[in-house]
Design a protein that fits this description.
306 residues; alpha+beta; four-stranded antiparallel β-sheet; 13 helices
Amino acid sequence: MSAFNKFKEEVLNSYRKKLSNNELHDKLANPTPANIRDYSLFLINGELSADDKKTIRDFYASKDDLADLEKTISGIDIDKLKPIKYFINGKTTNPDETIVKLLAVLIDFHPRPFRLDDWLEIEEDHKQKIKTFNKIPFGETIQPAHSSEIEASSHVHPSANNNSKTKTRFNIPTILVIGSFALLLGSIGYINLKEKKECMVWFKDRYISVDCMDNTLRNNQVIPMDKSKFENFRKITRLDTLTLKDVNKIWYSKVNNEVEFFTSSGIHPEHSERGLKLATSHIIQKYAIGDIQEEDQDLNNTEMPE
Protein backbone atom coordinates (compact mmCIF):
# COMPACT_ATOMS: atom_id res chain seq x y z
CA MET A 1 0.00 0.00 0.00
CA SER A 2 1.35 3.42 -0.96
CA ALA A 3 2.03 6.05 1.68
CA PHE A 4 -0.87 8.25 0.55
CA ASN A 5 -3.29 5.33 0.40
CA LYS A 6 -2.34 4.54 3.99
CA PHE A 7 -3.02 8.17 4.91
CA LYS A 8 -6.36 8.03 3.08
CA GLU A 9 -7.35 4.84 4.90
CA GLU A 10 -6.45 6.27 8.32
CA VAL A 11 -8.36 9.53 7.68
CA LEU A 12 -11.50 7.61 6.75
CA ASN A 13 -11.12 5.24 9.74
CA SER A 14 -10.69 8.26 12.01
CA TYR A 15 -13.90 9.82 10.67
CA ARG A 16 -15.86 6.63 11.30
CA LYS A 17 -14.42 6.22 14.79
CA LYS A 18 -15.21 9.82 15.76
CA LEU A 19 -18.70 9.45 14.32
CA SER A 20 -19.40 6.33 16.41
CA ASN A 21 -18.02 8.08 19.52
CA ASN A 22 -20.15 11.19 18.94
CA GLU A 23 -17.03 13.36 18.60
CA LEU A 24 -17.92 15.11 15.36
CA HIS A 25 -19.65 18.44 14.85
CA ASP A 26 -23.29 18.01 13.82
CA LYS A 27 -22.56 19.29 10.33
CA LEU A 28 -19.85 16.65 9.83
CA ALA A 29 -21.96 13.89 11.35
CA ASN A 30 -24.42 14.65 8.54
CA PRO A 31 -21.98 15.52 5.72
CA THR A 32 -24.30 17.00 3.14
CA PRO A 33 -22.59 19.31 0.62
CA ALA A 34 -24.27 22.32 2.26
CA ASN A 35 -23.08 21.27 5.73
CA ILE A 36 -19.53 20.76 4.47
CA ARG A 37 -19.60 24.25 2.95
CA ASP A 38 -20.95 25.81 6.15
CA TYR A 39 -18.42 24.04 8.36
CA SER A 40 -15.59 25.12 6.07
CA LEU A 41 -16.76 28.73 6.44
CA PHE A 42 -16.89 28.27 10.19
CA LEU A 43 -13.35 26.87 10.36
CA ILE A 44 -11.65 29.61 8.35
CA ASN A 45 -12.88 32.19 10.82
CA GLY A 46 -11.25 30.32 13.71
CA GLU A 47 -7.64 29.63 14.60
CA LEU A 48 -6.13 27.53 11.82
CA SER A 49 -2.50 26.76 11.08
CA ALA A 50 -0.92 28.02 7.87
CA ASP A 51 -0.89 24.44 6.56
CA ASP A 52 -4.62 23.98 7.23
CA LYS A 53 -5.47 27.25 5.52
CA LYS A 54 -3.43 26.20 2.50
CA THR A 55 -5.26 22.86 2.38
CA ILE A 56 -8.63 24.60 2.37
CA ARG A 57 -7.51 27.14 -0.25
CA ASP A 58 -6.14 24.36 -2.46
CA PHE A 59 -9.45 22.52 -2.40
CA TYR A 60 -11.62 25.57 -3.01
CA ALA A 61 -9.13 27.07 -5.49
CA SER A 62 -9.04 30.37 -3.65
CA LYS A 63 -6.46 33.14 -3.41
CA ASP A 64 -4.32 33.73 -0.31
CA ASP A 65 -6.84 36.13 1.20
CA LEU A 66 -9.49 35.49 3.87
CA ALA A 67 -12.15 37.67 2.23
CA ASP A 68 -11.62 35.97 -1.12
CA LEU A 69 -11.69 32.54 0.53
CA GLU A 70 -15.01 33.31 2.26
CA LYS A 71 -16.46 34.54 -1.01
CA THR A 72 -15.23 31.48 -2.89
CA ILE A 73 -16.60 29.00 -0.34
CA SER A 74 -19.94 30.81 -0.02
CA GLY A 75 -20.45 30.87 -3.78
CA ILE A 76 -19.21 27.38 -4.59
CA ASP A 77 -21.39 25.09 -6.66
CA ILE A 78 -22.80 22.62 -4.10
CA ASP A 79 -22.34 19.73 -6.53
CA LYS A 80 -18.56 20.18 -6.31
CA LEU A 81 -18.73 19.10 -2.65
CA LYS A 82 -20.56 15.85 -3.34
CA PRO A 83 -17.30 13.86 -3.87
CA ILE A 84 -16.44 14.48 -0.19
CA LYS A 85 -19.72 12.89 0.87
CA TYR A 86 -19.16 10.03 -1.58
CA PHE A 87 -15.70 9.40 -0.09
CA ILE A 88 -17.10 9.38 3.46
CA ASN A 89 -19.96 6.98 2.70
CA GLY A 90 -17.76 4.69 0.59
CA LYS A 91 -19.42 5.43 -2.73
CA THR A 92 -15.98 6.25 -4.12
CA THR A 93 -12.71 4.67 -3.02
CA ASN A 94 -10.32 6.71 -5.14
CA PRO A 95 -11.00 10.40 -4.41
CA ASP A 96 -8.81 13.30 -5.42
CA GLU A 97 -5.97 13.96 -2.97
CA THR A 98 -7.36 17.41 -2.12
CA ILE A 99 -10.56 15.76 -0.85
CA VAL A 100 -8.70 13.48 1.55
CA LYS A 101 -6.52 16.34 2.81
CA LEU A 102 -9.55 18.60 3.34
CA LEU A 103 -11.40 15.91 5.30
CA ALA A 104 -8.31 15.52 7.51
CA VAL A 105 -8.58 19.21 8.40
CA LEU A 106 -12.34 19.10 8.93
CA ILE A 107 -12.15 16.23 11.43
CA ASP A 108 -8.89 17.40 13.04
CA PHE A 109 -6.97 14.27 12.01
CA HIS A 110 -3.33 13.88 13.03
CA PRO A 111 -0.69 13.77 11.72
CA ARG A 112 -1.49 16.33 9.07
CA PRO A 113 -0.89 17.71 6.53
CA PHE A 114 0.18 14.68 4.52
CA ARG A 115 3.94 14.49 4.26
CA LEU A 116 5.52 11.55 2.50
CA ASP A 117 8.31 11.14 5.05
CA ASP A 118 5.86 10.82 7.94
CA TRP A 119 3.99 7.96 6.35
CA LEU A 120 7.10 6.23 5.02
CA GLU A 121 8.35 6.10 8.62
CA ILE A 122 5.04 4.63 9.79
CA GLU A 123 5.13 2.07 6.99
CA GLU A 124 8.74 1.15 7.76
CA ASP A 125 7.96 0.72 11.45
CA HIS A 126 5.03 -1.53 10.55
CA LYS A 127 7.24 -3.64 8.28
CA GLN A 128 9.89 -3.95 10.99
CA LYS A 129 7.31 -5.29 13.45
CA ILE A 130 6.15 -7.85 10.89
CA LYS A 131 9.75 -8.86 10.18
CA THR A 132 10.45 -9.38 13.89
CA PHE A 133 7.30 -11.45 14.32
CA ASN A 134 8.14 -13.60 11.31
CA LYS A 135 11.53 -14.55 12.82
CA ILE A 136 9.69 -16.81 15.31
CA PRO A 137 9.25 -20.20 13.57
CA PHE A 138 5.66 -21.31 13.22
CA GLY A 139 4.64 -23.74 15.98
CA GLU A 140 7.76 -23.15 18.06
CA THR A 141 7.28 -23.53 21.82
CA ILE A 142 9.53 -22.51 24.69
CA GLN A 143 11.30 -25.55 26.15
CA PRO A 144 11.08 -25.96 29.94
CA ALA A 145 14.28 -25.80 31.96
CA HIS A 146 15.93 -28.99 33.23
CA SER A 147 14.92 -30.14 36.68
CA SER A 148 18.40 -29.40 38.01
CA GLU A 149 18.12 -25.81 36.80
CA ILE A 150 14.73 -25.47 38.41
CA GLU A 151 16.06 -26.87 41.66
CA ALA A 152 19.06 -24.54 41.63
CA SER A 153 16.88 -21.55 40.97
CA SER A 154 14.73 -22.43 43.98
CA HIS A 155 17.69 -22.03 46.38
CA VAL A 156 17.47 -18.32 46.83
CA HIS A 157 19.02 -16.48 49.76
CA PRO A 158 16.38 -15.72 52.43
CA SER A 159 17.16 -12.01 52.30
CA ALA A 160 16.29 -11.99 48.63
CA ASN A 161 12.89 -13.46 49.39
CA ASN A 162 12.31 -10.85 52.07
CA ASN A 163 13.20 -8.02 49.69
CA SER A 164 10.90 -9.46 47.08
CA LYS A 165 8.01 -9.64 49.52
CA THR A 166 8.68 -6.11 50.72
CA LYS A 167 8.59 -4.80 47.16
CA THR A 168 5.39 -6.73 46.47
CA ARG A 169 3.68 -5.27 49.50
CA PHE A 170 4.70 -1.77 48.32
CA ASN A 171 3.86 -2.16 44.64
CA ILE A 172 0.40 -3.73 44.85
CA PRO A 173 -1.25 -0.79 46.69
CA THR A 174 0.53 1.64 44.41
CA ILE A 175 -0.71 -0.18 41.34
CA LEU A 176 -4.23 -0.31 42.75
CA VAL A 177 -4.22 3.43 43.44
CA ILE A 178 -2.89 4.27 39.98
CA GLY A 179 -5.34 1.87 38.35
CA SER A 180 -8.29 3.32 40.26
CA PHE A 181 -7.24 6.86 39.36
CA ALA A 182 -6.92 5.94 35.68
CA LEU A 183 -10.36 4.29 35.80
CA LEU A 184 -11.83 7.40 37.40
CA LEU A 185 -10.33 9.67 34.74
CA GLY A 186 -11.59 7.37 32.02
CA SER A 187 -15.10 7.40 33.50
CA ILE A 188 -15.10 11.20 33.75
CA GLY A 189 -13.93 11.48 30.17
CA TYR A 190 -16.63 9.10 29.00
CA ILE A 191 -19.34 10.99 30.89
CA ASN A 192 -18.13 14.31 29.51
CA LEU A 193 -18.15 12.91 26.01
CA LYS A 194 -21.69 11.59 26.35
CA GLU A 195 -22.90 14.80 27.97
CA LYS A 196 -21.12 17.16 25.59
CA LYS A 197 -22.89 20.48 25.94
CA GLU A 198 -24.08 22.25 22.84
CA CYS A 199 -23.62 25.98 22.42
CA MET A 200 -24.04 28.35 19.51
CA VAL A 201 -22.11 31.20 17.95
CA TRP A 202 -23.14 33.93 15.52
CA PHE A 203 -21.86 33.43 11.98
CA LYS A 204 -22.65 35.97 9.24
CA ASP A 205 -26.49 36.05 9.37
CA ARG A 206 -27.46 33.29 11.80
CA TYR A 207 -26.43 31.18 14.79
CA ILE A 208 -24.65 27.88 14.21
CA SER A 209 -24.26 25.07 16.74
CA VAL A 210 -20.83 24.43 18.28
CA ASP A 211 -19.29 22.40 21.07
CA CYS A 212 -19.13 24.54 24.23
CA MET A 213 -15.60 23.28 24.93
CA ASP A 214 -14.23 23.95 21.44
CA ASN A 215 -10.92 25.75 22.06
CA THR A 216 -10.86 27.20 18.54
CA LEU A 217 -13.73 29.56 19.45
CA ARG A 218 -11.95 31.65 22.07
CA ASN A 219 -12.32 34.81 19.99
CA ASN A 220 -16.05 34.31 19.36
CA GLN A 221 -19.07 35.05 21.54
CA VAL A 222 -20.10 31.51 22.43
CA ILE A 223 -23.47 31.33 24.23
CA PRO A 224 -25.63 28.44 25.50
CA MET A 225 -27.89 26.83 22.93
CA ASP A 226 -31.26 28.57 22.58
CA LYS A 227 -33.38 26.48 20.23
CA SER A 228 -35.77 29.33 19.48
CA LYS A 229 -33.00 31.75 18.51
CA PHE A 230 -31.08 29.03 16.70
CA GLU A 231 -34.05 28.21 14.49
CA ASN A 232 -35.70 31.62 14.06
CA PHE A 233 -33.25 34.47 14.64
CA ARG A 234 -31.76 35.75 11.37
CA LYS A 235 -30.21 38.92 10.04
CA ILE A 236 -32.18 40.18 7.03
CA THR A 237 -29.64 40.60 4.23
CA ARG A 238 -32.10 41.20 1.38
CA LEU A 239 -33.51 44.62 2.23
CA ASP A 240 -35.32 44.76 -1.10
CA THR A 241 -37.69 42.11 0.24
CA LEU A 242 -38.98 44.38 3.02
CA THR A 243 -42.26 46.26 2.65
CA LEU A 244 -44.60 48.24 4.88
CA LYS A 245 -46.30 44.95 5.71
CA ASP A 246 -43.25 44.24 7.90
CA VAL A 247 -43.88 47.25 10.17
CA ASN A 248 -43.70 46.16 13.85
CA LYS A 249 -42.91 42.61 12.75
CA ILE A 250 -39.13 42.94 12.40
CA TRP A 251 -36.43 44.55 14.54
CA TYR A 252 -33.46 46.80 13.83
CA SER A 253 -30.30 48.27 15.30
CA LYS A 254 -27.89 50.98 14.20
CA VAL A 255 -24.18 50.20 14.57
CA ASN A 256 -21.44 52.45 13.16
CA ASN A 257 -24.05 54.41 11.17
CA GLU A 258 -25.33 51.23 9.55
CA VAL A 259 -28.88 49.99 10.14
CA GLU A 260 -29.35 46.23 10.31
CA PHE A 261 -32.67 44.38 10.36
CA PHE A 262 -33.43 41.11 12.18
CA THR A 263 -36.31 38.65 12.24
CA SER A 264 -36.69 38.48 16.05
CA SER A 265 -36.29 40.59 19.16
CA GLY A 266 -33.41 40.47 21.62
CA ILE A 267 -29.90 41.89 21.70
CA HIS A 268 -27.56 42.45 18.81
CA PRO A 269 -25.72 39.14 18.20
CA GLU A 270 -22.33 40.85 17.76
CA HIS A 271 -22.79 43.86 20.04
CA SER A 272 -24.34 42.56 23.27
CA GLU A 273 -24.57 46.07 24.74
CA ARG A 274 -27.20 46.99 22.14
CA GLY A 275 -30.83 45.94 22.19
CA LEU A 276 -32.96 45.56 19.07
CA LYS A 277 -36.00 47.79 18.45
CA LEU A 278 -39.20 47.30 16.53
CA ALA A 279 -38.95 48.73 13.02
CA THR A 280 -41.50 51.50 12.38
CA SER A 281 -42.80 52.43 8.93
CA HIS A 282 -40.47 55.42 8.99
CA ILE A 283 -37.40 53.23 9.62
CA ILE A 284 -38.34 50.69 6.96
CA GLN A 285 -39.08 53.38 4.38
CA LYS A 286 -35.83 55.24 4.97
CA TYR A 287 -33.38 52.36 5.41
CA ALA A 288 -34.97 49.56 3.39
CA ILE A 289 -37.35 51.06 0.81
CA GLY A 290 -35.52 54.39 0.52
CA ASP A 291 -38.54 56.65 -0.09
CA ILE A 292 -37.83 59.25 2.62
CA GLN A 293 -35.15 61.87 2.03
CA GLU A 294 -35.45 64.05 5.14
CA GLU A 295 -33.44 63.57 8.31
CA ASP A 296 -34.34 60.53 10.34
CA GLN A 297 -35.61 62.23 13.48
CA ASP A 298 -37.24 59.06 14.70
CA LEU A 299 -33.99 57.13 14.63
CA ASN A 300 -31.90 59.91 16.15
CA ASN A 301 -34.37 60.41 18.99
CA THR A 302 -34.58 56.76 19.96
CA GLU A 303 -31.19 55.28 19.11
CA MET A 304 -28.56 54.96 21.80
CA PRO A 305 -25.54 57.26 21.34
CA GLU A 306 -22.59 55.77 19.50
